[in-house]
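S1.2 Input.
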Amino acid sequence: MAEPTPNKEARHRLRQSLTRHLLAATAAVAFASALMFLGFGHPLDWVARLSLTTAFLGLGGVAFALRRDAGTGVQGRALPFVIGAAIGLSGVAAAVAGEGLMSPALAVVGVFLCLFTVIGGLRAGILAAAIGVGMLVLLAVAMAFDWLSSAGIAPLTVSPLNLVRPLLTHALVLGIALGGGELLGRTLDRTLRSADERERRFLGLLAVAADAYWEMDGNGRLIRFSAKEELRNFVGLRRHGVDAGMGKLLWETRGVMFDSQVLEAFRSELAARLPMRDVPLRWADVSGRVRHFTLSAEPRTNEASKFAGYWGVLRDITQDVKARQALWSTETRYQDLFRRIPTPLVLHREGRVLDANPAGVALFGFVDLRALLGQDLLPLFEDGPSRERAREHVQRLDGLAIGEGLPETEFTLMPGADRLLTVRVSSVRVDVDGEAATLSIITDDTERRAAEDLVRRSETLLSHLVSTSPDWITLTEFASGRYAMVNPTFLATTGYRAEEVIGRTPSELGLWADATQRDRIYRMLDQHEAVQNFPATMTTRDRRRVSMLVSAARFTIDDIDYQMTSARDVTATEQARREREAILENALVGISFTRDRRIVMTNARFDEMFGWPRGALQNQQQRVLWPSDDAFNWMSDEVGPALSRGEQVDFEVPMMRRDGATFTGRLLAKALDPAQPASGTIWLAEDVTERRLVEQALARARDAAEAANRAKSAFLANTSHEIRTPLNALVGLAQLARTPEVDDRRRLQYIEQICESADTLSAILSDILDLSKIEAGKLIVDRVAFDLRALIGTLKQAYGALADTKGLTLYVSIDDDVPQHVQGDPMRLRQVLTNYLTNALKFTTAGSILLNVQRGAGHRLRFEVIDTGAGMDGAALSMLFLPFSQVDNSITRKVGGTGLGLSICSELAKLMDGTVGVNSEPGKGSAFWVDLPLPAVTAQQLEEHESTSGLDALQGTRVLMVEDNPVNMMIAVALLERWGAIVDQASDGAAALHAIDEAWHAGDPFDIVLMDVQMPGMSGHEVTRRLRQRYDRNTLPIVALTAAALVSEREDAMAAGMNDFLTKPIDADRLRQTLVHVLTQAEAGAER
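S1.3 Output.
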């Protein structure tokens, strides 16, 4: 077994001590040698002595300085050089003194060598011995060759043989010194090894009782610290040395922490040099970790029994502190848990309470713990079986060992006169202060039992509700979607049986009418775990669709996700809602609902009425519907109180559209709940603007109609007079003409007067018929080419003679730029001008009448009749051109007339795209004018017109005249034959049909038929309808010729298939123009 290694610290300290002693000895020898060379008489010269003295003083100074340097390591490194220098100087001194091997200074070399070997070891000693031997050999050689005499000292007379003995002697001394040094070194090693072994045993024993050993000097500074490597690294100290953290007061050492009171006591004990036991302190390493220690120390003395400081030990109690803290924490937690746990806990011995937590105190009905301590628990149990079981329970527990217990047992407690509690008690034996006791854990089941009863009742109620609910209620597994439960309503609505549904999915049953609705519900359940009132459409077994409001929730039972679904059949409700919405949206009146002066809801008609986009009025203030703040405030002030009283209001006010336009609105309003007016108001709104305008127009029309009725009454009176006057003349003159005694001249005069009366009567009737046609919109104007100047000429000729008879002059003025031939309706132009000229002749008693024709803008011509009559004021002018109106309707008026002429002129002018007017002042005459578009015609157009409208236009035309009246037949045939036409006659409808068919089959068909309408047997309408079954309008034109002049008669004739319509009495020009026009159209149609 290898020997234990010497204690390095002890050897280090010993070497330091020997080095200091050796350096001190060297310094002493060096200083003595310097004094010897300097102070005593010596044969050397002063230079040699001064040199040697200086060398020895330098050596002594260095050795002395090194002796004082400790702990830096310089001593150890410089010592070999110092010893070498000392040996060399000894040799130099011996040589310079001339003494050589005989010099007594060589005696110290052996001493130096011995000590150096002890300090530096055998190798260092051999090296030093070699240096010494070398120096001795040099001295011997110098003495043998007498080199020492050169120093100025008398030479020693020594033979070479005599030098061997001193050389060997000195070498032997060096050898002995080397051996002695080695022997002394080994002895010291053994001593240190033994001390190291003792220290290890000491530290080993110390480690059993403590974790570190330390020493302090008499000033309380730490001079030694010994511990395991881990602890030394933690505290940052080595065994000795200032550089290892030593030399500081303990409480100033890095990381050492005392509590203030502990430190004060510790310093007091140090000052009193008293022993210390288990002084607590904390020590932190450089990373901040903290350990807990206790310090114990005893005063120590030196060899002189004087106080030298303290030595002591440290015990690491970190784990003990942590354990105590954990124990304290555990104990605290236990006590806290014991006090805070809601489960009643009672600690008792033989049934008497030792301790209890607040829950236990409250369970037994005591105010606080002090009132419960020492109480016997048995009387608190219900008398009877429960108390007997409790007594047996306590007796059985007394026989159990600590740690054993009894299973949970049910008891009934009676903590108060009116309280009975059902509890479960489990008990275990525990140790309390060295004695056995019982800890009872009590569970109050009173509420649980009540809750279980409630749950049972709730389950029964829930089962009843599910089975009787009018809604679908289903339970499905969320992952698979398969039904686990359905209620009877589900089965009744869908038409399935329970066994057909359980275990299947809605998709397998085809319940979802729209799969996207199912997917949306599943997504919402994934995100929110609940769905409320989701509208969906389901399909029953018979494929009937039902509207449902679906609510669903997702929950977990036993790690399985379920879905509870409730669905209400709202098919009827939804249908009713759609019907209500349809009624609301299609209502002809606007409907709105308001609350707190804000619009909540409107229908489409309301939005449209006020000009707002659909739905844009919602949440708007009511003020936006009113044209001003004053109007809105009026409504609030006037209508608000009535609404508050629950009354219905109905009023009309101006309202405002979104674009700012106003209209007249009729509003009906009533509070939704008269008992709570603040709940809102229902408004019905109607735009009555047009109605009011219509009513106003109707009022004006009524007034106008009444005026028209009055005018018509006057007209009838006038017309009756105007008709009876010529009619009376006709009858009277006819009777006179039939008198046999009347001569031919007088009879001819009567006949001429009869013709004049007939013309007058015809004119009156024509005016009436024309006005009827105009009012019915059935009067048609022609657009033909005619000679305007010739027409004006005939008017001048006719009315010039009449003017002459009244003493008036008729002038005609036609501007040069007025065309000769124009296109228009010459008959209607003649009718207008005839009315103007007739009126001028009526109302002009003196002076003249001017017919003026001027060229206007474009193709327009102005015809103006200017008279020098009495003129008219504004009131009279306003009545002109109105039907049935005359300036003077009185029976005393100077001139007659029906009052239709100017009205017909105005309407005829409108039909010809013209205008009429009058300029007149009282006393200055009147100027009646008409502006008409009459474009000029070319020569070619005029030629075409004359070819079709001339006297020979009807030459050779085959005409069938159908007329039952012989007179009318005679007149019509005479006119037609005068125009060159070939006329056949038929007196009734049947004859007409036969004649037409016969002519057709003979290859000589009629060109046109003039058909009387009202005939016996078969009417003209019936004849025409039959003919139209075989002949079209172009093949066989038919013109009605009838005394019926009503507009309806014309419509019936045209509907029967006739080409045109003429009234009796026959107007020859009109008849000829109509025949030419119809034949031309028929010919053109046949060519197409």
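S1.4 Remarks. The first strand starts at residue 212 and ends at 216.
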